[in-house]
Every structure is written in C-alpha cells, then in structure tokens.
Amino acid sequence: VENAQLSAARNSDFANAAREELMETKLRVGNLTAEINQYQSQNAALENRVKELQEMLDKDRDLHRKRMAEKEKEMAQAQKKVQEQLEEYEHLLDVKLALDLEINAYRKMLEGEEQRLNISPSASSRSTATQASEGRRFLHGRKRKMRAKKRECSAGFKTVQHASTSGKVSIEEIDVDGNFVRLKNNSDEDQPLSGWVLRRHLESVSDVTYKFPSQFTLQAGQVVTVWGAAAGVSPGPSDLVWKSQKSWGAGFDIGVTLITDEGEELAERKLMHVPRGEESGEQDDEYEELMGSEVELPSQ
Predict the structure, then answer these.
(1) Are residues 289 and 254 in the same domain?
(2) Do 192 and 133 lie in a common domain?
(3) What is the pLDDT of residues 23-35, one digit of tens each?
(4) Element at 93 (helix H, strand E)
C-alpha cells in the first residue's frame, strides 16, 4: 500500500509538471501567433507600398519618355532650322562672291576703257557703276542667272594655281567651280589621315576646316577627293563628302592647306583668277568685249 501511495504521489507530481508545461506551451503559441499576425499585416502594408512605388515609377517613366520624345522633336526642328539657315547663308555667300567677282570685273573694264579712251574718272563712270549695281541687285535672287553672268565675266580671266608640299601627301587639284579638292599620296607607304584637316581660306570669308574621318587611310599612290555636299556624290573608298559645306567656294583667291593632327602644315595649294589683260597684249579688246556685257546688264 505504501508503494502504491508513493507511486501515486510521483505520478501526481509528473501530471502537475506536464500540465504546467502545457500551459506554458499554449502561452508561447499564442504569443507566436500574435507575432505572425503582426508580421503578416506589416508584409501586406509593405506590398501595398511597393505597388504604389511601382505605379509612381511607371508614371515617371512614361512622363520621361514623353518629355524625351518632345525634346528630340524640338532638336530635330532646331537642326532643320539650322540646316535651312546654313543653306541660306551659303546661298548668300555664293551671291556675295559672285557680286565681288562682277565688281572687280566691272572695275577692270572701266579702268581699261578710261585708259583706252584717255579719259579721267568722271560722273559718267560712277553712273555706269551705279547701273551695274542695279543689274546685280536684279540678279540677286536668281542663282542660275548669277552663275551664267559669273561664267560670262570670268571669260576675261584665266585660272592660275600655285602648289607646295613638304610631305608625302600633296593637294593635286582645286576645282575652279568649288566642287571638290583632290589629294594624292606620292609615297610607297599608306598614310593614315585620322585627325588631319583641310583648311580653306576664301578671300574675306572666315576660314573653315574639314576634318578627315577617324581610321581613314590614304593608300600608297592613290588619290582621295573631298566633295562639297551640293555635288551629289556618294561617299566611297576614294570619295569623301564635306556634309557641312555645299561647296569649297569660288572667288579670286582660294587657298587650301593640309594640316596634320600635330598642327604641321604639310601641303598648300592656291587658286587665283588673274585678268588676262594683265599678261597679254589683247587687254583693250578683252575689256571692250566685257564692257558690252556690262552695258546690256541694266536693260535686263
């Protein structure tokens, strides 16, 4: 009986301990459940915040793309306007050069007539110059007529070119109409022209430069032609296009200089229009022939 009582007491103690442990476990489970619910609510709030931020990001991205498209459109319009202004400037430059050519031709013709007739400059000469200027204004907006008159007046001139070179590459030719400039590699080795430039000097006009494309190499013994944009030539192995200039220009004095990437001037060529009367015995006849063209100009 005593053993049974002792065993019952021990079992009662074990049961009490298990009951207390069960209560503690339930309490711990309740706390953990509350924490899980709290974490779930926080996770839901964070997911909502992420969704809101994603929507804001999408809106900002769409707005940015729209603004970029508008800016690109504005840049395209600005580039188009700049190109139109550049073409207008080049047209005006061509007109100015043609008018300068005519002015010098008329001045030479008037001087030749005065010398031939042994008369001094008078009011009639100034009146003739005024009539010539009125005729030039008539030709201002007609480029084709301007070029025809330019060729007519240039009949009293001859073209002279002077060239010099101190390297392997030389400037072989300057087109009298300003369409192109041609270079030649006179050596047996290829010559890289990356970073090299051609500088054009045209009377009172500011100098402009053409820069050769990167990685461009002029083969040994070969030539390369740099065309103006108005020439309508497609780029090729031996043909380059100066896209920012319609032509190399035309006038009494045109100079082109080849400059290396280190700033050294290796080659130069000058093209000049010299009155034929200065170097021939037919000065009076030529001036008389050109004077006839001048008299007809105001009537047009």
Answers:
(1) no
(2) no
(3) 999 999 999 999 9
(4) helix 2-117
Q: How far is CA 51 from CA 4, 47, 293, in A?
A: 69, 6, 83
**Rounded CA separation 134/111 (Å):** 20
Could you read off the pLDDT of 114-136 as tens digits, one per residue?
888 877 654 444 444 444 444 44
> pTM score, two decimals?
0.43
Place of tokens 């489970």: 29
Q: CA-CA distance, 166 to 196, in Å (whole number)?
A: 15
Please check whether residues 206 and 272 belong to one and the same domain.
yes
Range of the domain at 223: 158-276
The angle subtended at Cα 159 by Cα 200 and Cα 281, nearest 5°, is: 150
Separation CA 204–CA 201 (nearest Å) = 8
Indicate the number of domains in the chain.
2
Query: What distances in angstroms separate CA 13 from CA 4, 7, 8, 20, 25, one per listed residue?
Result: 14, 10, 9, 11, 18
